[in-house]
Write a structure and sequence with these properties.
Blueprint (H helix, E strand, L loop, with lengths): L2 E5 L2 E3 L5 E8 L8 E7 L3 E8 L6 E3 L7 E6 L4 E6 L8 E6 L8 E5 L2
Parallel strand pairs: 2-10
Antiparallel strand pairs: 1-3, 3-8, 4-5, 4-9, 5-6, 7-8, 9-10
Length: 112
């Protein structure tokens, strides 16, 4: 059974940083492209970033480019999202996902 468990969300002031983690199990993580998505009342559910097999290629939505970094540790079956210079518009529930499954999400709130 595919399991994706996110952690690391919380409240942060604008300009702050958070690192999200996702523990993956039940599938061949090392050979799977992984994604972060987010959902908010403002945007709906949108794709944020992806990291391809091997970890050398990544891609981001334009509004987070240069502020967020997606990474993976295939030895530990872990996915990460380092978020810097956070803005109130980044407030959302963040999900770790494969092409077909996603976790339960972790809340990120950016406000002063």
């Amino acid at each position: 059974e595919v399991q994706l468990v996110e952690s690391g969300g919380g409240w942060v002031q604008p300009g702050g940083s958070l690192r999200l983690s996702c523990a993956a199990s039940g599938f061949a993580f090392k050979t799977t492209t992984m994604h972060w998505t987010r959902e908010s009342a403002r945007e709906g559910h949108v794709w944020v970033a992806a990291i391809f097999v091997g970890g050398n290629r990544t891609t981001y939505m334009s509004s987070v480019q240069g502020r967020f970094t997606i990474s993976r540790d295939d030895a530990k079956n872990m996915l990460y999202l380092q978020m810097n210079n956070l803005r109130p518009d980044d407030t959302a529930v963040y999900y770790c996902s494969t092409d077909t499954k996603r976790g339960q999400g972790t809340q990120v709130t950016v406000s002063s």
